[in-house]
Design brief:
Keywords: DNA replication, DNA-binding, Primosome. It comes from Rhodoferax sediminis. One of its GO terms (biological process) is DNA replication, synthesis of primer. Belongs to the PriB family. The protein has one helix at 55-62; strands spanning 4-13, 17-18, 24-38, 41-54, 69-78, 85-94. With 95 residues, it is mainly β. A hairpin with a 2-residue loop joins strand 3 and strand 4. It is globular.
Length: 95
């Protein structure tokens, strides 16, 4: 199953665009920072990931403040060209 839940801050948002079919689309970059235990040791985790949202979800995310923290749910897929992973956001809620 390809299901991702990630608490992250909205670090960067591109201008709202539309697909050739007229669907709103929003490209963004999310940043995550946390501590987690791995092999009996605490590990600091910092990461950034590209993300995309479509339709009403894109419009909702586009109205949020840069730097605000949310819990995003969605799935991972290769970006066009297949070199990078992109989180496709299906939902988000206040963390």
């Amino acid at each position: 199953m390809n299901h991702v839940v990630l608490t992250a801050c909205i670090a960067e948002v591109n201008a709202l665009r539309h697909t050739p079919a007229g669907l709103p689309a929003l490209d963004m970059r999310l940043e995550h920072e946390s501590s987690i235990e791995e092999a009996g040791q605490m590990r600091q985790v910092k990461m950034a990931i590209k993300a995309v949202a479509f339709g009403a979800m894109a419009e909702r995310i586009g109205q949020q403040i840069i730097g605000s923290a949310w819990k995003f749910t969605g799935f991972l897929a290769n970006a066009r060209g297949g070199k990078h992973i992109v989180l496709h956001v299906l939902d988000f809620q206040q963390d």
